[in-house]
Amino acid sequence: MNVSIDTNIIIAVAGGIVSISAAYVVVKKSIKSVTDKIKDNLKKEVKEEVKSEIVQPTFKAVTDKHDADLEKLTERLEGITKQFEECSKAVLEEQRKMNDSAKEFRISTLKGLIVQSHSTYTQLGHIEPMVLSTLEDIYKTYTDIGGNHFVADLMEEIRALPKD
Predict the structure, then answer these.
(1) Per-residue three-class SS string for the chain
(2) Lower Cβ count inside 10 Å, N or C end of the chain?
């Protein structure tokens, strides 16, 4: 059996194989391009879906909770601030009363010293210069802190006493 092969047939078959191979490469590239586009679109869709169905609701829930907590803290802070202001006012008022009482006590004490000194030194009929200087300092302090002129005449009488 002698088989003869026609070269034209071989060339035609080889050309068909080459054409099919080339078509395969073109189709493969097209399929890859379409697949990549589908994959990119799918990624975008999934990303948007995750964003809209998971991220945004979760973010909103966290933000809403944060806002509610912040509102509660703000209310508590306002309450504490109000209590602090009330306490501060009460403390300041109490300090004012204590300061007033202390001032009145100092005025009364200094007035008492001047009255007692007047009685003592007018009975003696004279005063030492050092004692007079001390009484002048006491009288100045008395008037500086708000003492009235009750003892002014007494100081004039003390000043008029002979110095020894």
Answers:
(1) CCCCCCHHHHHHHHHHHHHHHHHHHHHHHHHHHHHHHHHHHHHHHHHHHHHHHHHHHHHHHHHHHHHHHHHHHHHHHHHHHHHHHHHHHHHHHHHHHHHHHHHHHHHHHHHHHHHHHHHHHHHHCCECHHHHHHHHHHHHHHHHCCCCHHHHHHHHHHHHCCEC
(2) N
